[in-house]
């Protein structure tokens, strides 16, 4: 199995400006993401950025970066631009690794890619992990996913779903059926080439979840149950401090 990894890394952020360049253990965050990605089975890793400073840092560390349009509204749009520039074949598998995941586990990257390798009729895959904490379940910053019998996504939401009507208490958490979405995606190039033709969905705008565009358009999203515990991403200063402490004890 071979696949490519694209890491969208934009400079502007509503919470942490210049997030990809934030220092973690003496190394910019985006470089940690690249280095973790290179431990996977991928045969190529590319950083897709809209900022010259990020481009220069990646290139100076000896890795590959591509400048993309500053006006992209999502990381997927940035990934699509790179796919079109690189001219990869329609059957090539692309994994979108978030640029704020310095602790991303290479095994998780392999999992979502292997799913598409084994499921030729599916064009998009992502991952989930069982929810064991009640506060995680009710936290709107944690996206939940409900699956069908084939482990394909029925819906993603910031709301606590599925909603346990008869017993909405801490005791229900940990039972089968409660899953937190992990924001990593694998795509086939053929799907990405047609992505621009999928218009933004109202549900996507309401929940602020881009993957709802794909479901609304009638496409399937395969979901793998992560075999590794997902690590902390960096969205806030608090997240950054947590990750910095984890690197100190590595």
Automatic annotation (TrEMBL):
<keyword id="KW-0448">Lipopolysaccharide biosynthesis</keyword>
<dbReference type="GO" id="GO:0009103">
    <property type="term" value="P:lipopolysaccharide biosynthetic process"/>
</dbReference>
<comment type="similarity">
    <text>Belongs to the KdsB family.</text>
</comment>
<comment type="pathway">
    <text>Nucleotide-sugar biosynthesis; CMP-3-deoxy-D-manno-octulosonate biosynthesis; CMP-3-deoxy-D-manno-octulosonate from 3-deoxy-D-manno-octulosonate and CTP: step 1/1.</text>
</comment>
<dbReference type="InterPro" id="IPR003329">
    <property type="entry name" value="Cytidylyl_trans"/>
</dbReference>
<dbReference type="GO" id="GO:0016020">
    <property type="term" value="C:membrane"/>
</dbReference>
<dbReference type="InterPro" id="IPR029044">
    <property type="entry name" value="Nucleotide-diphossugar_trans"/>
</dbReference>
<keyword id="KW-0963">Cytoplasm</keyword>
<dbReference type="GO" id="GO:0033468">
    <property type="term" value="P:CMP-keto-3-deoxy-D-manno-octulosonic acid biosynthetic process"/>
</dbReference>
<keyword id="KW-0548">Nucleotidyltransferase</keyword>
<dbReference type="InterPro" id="IPR004528">
    <property type="entry name" value="KdsB"/>
</dbReference>
<keyword id="KW-0808">Transferase</keyword>
<dbReference type="Pfam" id="PF02348">
    <property type="entry name" value="CTP_transf_3"/>
</dbReference>
<dbReference type="GO" id="GO:0005829">
    <property type="term" value="C:cytosol"/>
</dbReference>
<comment type="function">
    <text>Activates KDO (a required 8-carbon sugar) for incorporation into bacterial lipopolysaccharide in Gram-negative bacteria.</text>
</comment>
<dbReference type="GO" id="GO:0008690">
    <property type="term" value="F:3-deoxy-manno-octulosonate cytidylyltransferase activity"/>
</dbReference>
<protein>
    <recommendedName>
        <fullName>3-deoxy-manno-octulosonate cytidylyltransferase</fullName>
        <ecNumber>2.7.7.38</ecNumber>
    </recommendedName>
</protein>
